[in-house]
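Hi X.,

You mentioned you wanted examples for the new student's onboarding notes, showing what a folding record looks like when two proteins sit in one file. Here is a clean example. The first protein comes first, with its sequence line followed by its structure tokens.
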Amino acid sequence: MQQSILLSLLALGLVACSTPKALFTLEGDQRAPATIQFKNNSTDSETYEWDFGSEGTSDQAEPSFSFSRAGNYLVSLRAKKGKKEDVSYQSVLIEGPSSCLVQIETDYGNMVVKLYNETPGHQANFLKLAEEGFYDSLMFHRVMQGFMIQGGDPNSRYAKPNARLGTGGPGYTIPAEFVDTLVHVKGALAAARTGDQSNPERRSSGSQFYLVQGRPTDENTLKVIAARGGFQYGPNQIKQYLELGGYPPLDQSYTVFGQVIEGLEVIDKITAERTNSSNRPLKDVRMRMKVIDYFIDKKP
């Protein structure tokens, strides 16, 4: 009996004196934007503290974490038990995406936009403004269901509820970059501009843009629009319009320079908001942008 009690006490003592060991592995595509699942293999531990480099922290046992930008991150896991702890480190390399990507964050969800290399002027300008924080806290000030959501007016940052918006910009415009293969399918990112009468070169606003929601279309409609505009749709553009819908009347008149590749449903949520007579949402819809990867020469 005494021997049994002694063995039990020894076992309890071994458990109490055991030292935590921090161990982890990870799974997931390591190309930005990358969502990595961390598997915790620690032993003799009660609580955990994760540090994902400059991106964030977590106290979950097995967190899933999204790295928005390319880079080499030193990830640490601190496993604790009482006053004892152990730390494990791993270097996690997140590769850059194959294209320039920007995340547009809203209260309705986030959208990831791919910027086209075929429109280098618009691409470089949009990346520059996004990186500088120009768009942060601006509104989608013009919302039209079945058409698009428009934002990028700097006057919207501190605009009063009934203020009319849509005339602001960074003080410059951008030459048009019309590309036959880039069309106004759902999710297209395009540059706003003033009308042809005052802007015969169809130069784009330096900051205002819109994201197409559009509506379903058919081949006959596309043929009429192409004939009227003096251009032709290729098989791929026709296929895109039939699958996604969009707003083809604007093709070759406004510069398309990107496409939403994640979060198309966010456009639908925003266009469902009630608006006033100027198509401004009654509830302010603000944005914040994060460049996921970029190729701007930052030399002075």
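Then the second protein repeats the pattern, sequence line and then tokens:
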Amino acid sequence: MMSGWIHLPRLIDKIRLHLAGKLHPDYQDNFTEGFDGLWLAAAGLKAEDFINVVKSTITDGQVGDWVRENVRKTQAEKEELARLILTRGNDTDERKARLKQRKEAYGISDRDDVKSFADLIEFDEKRL
């Protein structure tokens, strides 16, 4: 969370890695889509515009300040985005099947605590 927004710190990190030419190949095809795209749509921003915001700042705090000053969304809108992100993979049959496939690829089919793609990211980054 940053400035009341879920996923914002992760998106900033990915943008900085992209700008430095160091974004992991696994993330390049989906860059500014998926959760990134959900955040951008909820914030009402175009990817290129937000990338330029991050590019013109030195610290993540400066990006957070820019978001607080320029992205005017209600707490309910921010909570809706959080709900979408935290349940993605457990919300439609198609996404449930894709999550099941991803869990099998990771060898964690038996992990009942991995219920969404957000959980899968947490697992992959060794926080779950």
